[in-house]
Design goal:
The structure holds two protein chains of two kinds. Chain A contains five helices and no strands. The mean pLDDT of chain A is about 90. Chain B has two domains: about 160 residues, no CATH class; about 50 residues. Chain B contains 13 helices and no strands. The longest helix of chain B is centred in the C-terminal third of the chain and has 24 residues. The chains are: A mainly alpha, B mainly alpha. At the A-B interface, α1, α2, α3, α4 and α5 of A face α2, α3, α4, α5 and α6 of B.
Chain lengths: ~110, ~240
């Protein structure tokens, strides 16, 4: 990370304030006025629209291997995703993914 | 505010929120570890965790910081993850909108997924609850979980130094994001949104300043709604 200390604090302050304003929006400022249904429906998809796109390049082009596909990492990624779909539990999915990654790194190196 | 029986509602909220500790504690510790590994000082890590209290957005911000994305784009990407909370805010307003301003500010600060899910379900089940009972229940869902989130982050940040470098922590962030995806895929439109997000984020990866991800996210949200509408229209 090459961000300066000032930039790091700008991220912290900006994200903290921005997140608060999103949370405070209707409850504190706009009041009891319904959002247009289309907007309500769009907002429902924000996490699932951002997180997979954030993860995909990290999985396919991992930084630690200079962007080369890597069997232990790719397998661990698949196991994590599958475990999350099956268990519906974030921590269980992280656990299975980490166990897979370390086992394969230990076996294959 | 009625002082009669002030504790039971808060205790109910606390009790209902307790199972979430099983997720919040390890998740918070992981954030502390990764933030420290990324180069944040303890004060910076704790400031972020206390000011933001939103796991997915914090991990997203951290990832964009490591990738040396410009400050504005880091904030926008992480805020995009949190936009769903505007929906929470709108849905809670009919139940909590008449509370005093300082209480609404407190409730807004504490508006995380768990508080929203538990409280919205409670208000639905018990519409007879008074305003102050609703507020107490909501705060109850967070009196344990918010401090647990801060504390877990702190322990993660303090413990990070003890982790040897050969531990492949480079892959902890991707695994964390991947682990979040499975539980999000509740319906077909969610699945379509996730696929569009992945395909377009990869296609637009070369866009400057991380704008590709924001474009992909906007398209993915639209794809979710379009799928939803198509399913409604074609339902027999």
């Amino acid at each position: 990370m090459t961000l300066t200390t000032a930039e790091i604090w700008m991220v912290i302050a900006g994200l903290g304030l921005g997140t608060f304003l999103v949370r405070f929006s209707f409850l504190g400022l706009i009041g009891d006025r319904p959002l247009p249904p289309l907007v309500m429906h769009l907002l429902r998809y924000t996490p699932v629209a951002v997180i997979p796109g954030l993860a995909a390049p990290l999985v396919l082009w991992p930084e630690a291997t200079d962007g080369m596909l890597n069997a232990p990492r790719l397998t661990a990624a698949a196991v994590t995703l599958l475990a999350g779909v099956i268990t519906r539990n974030i921590v269980a999915a992280i656990f299975f993914g980490a166990v897979t990654l370390y086992t394969l790194l230990w076996l294959i190196g | 505010m009625s002082r009669k029986n002030p504790t039971p509602m808060m205790l109910q909220g606390l009790r209902d929120s307790a199972p979430f500790l099983l997720v919040i504690v390890p998740f918070g510790m992981l954030f502390g570890v990764l933030a420290t590994e990324a180069g944040l000082k303890i004060g910076e890590t704790m400031a972020m965790t206390v000011l933001v209290i939103a796991g997915a957005a914090q991990f997203a911000a951290l990832q964009q910081m490591v990738a040396d994305t410009p400050v504005v784009m880091i904030i926008l990407t992480a805020l995009a993850v949190n936009l769903r909370m505007a929906m929470y805010s709108a849905s809670l307003t009919p139940h909590l909108g008449k509370a005093p301003l300082w209480q609404r500010a407190l409730l807004a600060y504490l508006m995380v997924d768990q508080a929203f899910v538990l409280s919205a379900a409670k208000y639905e089940r018990a519409p007879e609850l008074s305003l102050s009972a609703r507020v107490r229940y909501y705060v109850g869902t967070m009196v344990l979980t918010a401090p647990a989130w801060y504390t877990a982050t702190l322990f993660g940040a303090l413990g990070a130094r003890a982790i040897p470098p050969g531990f492949a922590l480079d892959f902890a962030a991707p695994i964390t994001f991947l682990a979040m995806i499975g539980p999000m895929l509740r319906t077909l439109p969610h699945l379509v949104a996730a696929i569009v997000s992945i395909v377009l984020a990869l296609a637009f990866h070369g866009f400057p300043y991380g704008t590709g991800l924001l474009v992909a996210a906007a398209a993915a949200m639209a794809a979710g709604v379009v799928t939803e509408q198509a399913m409604g229209r074609f339902r027999p």
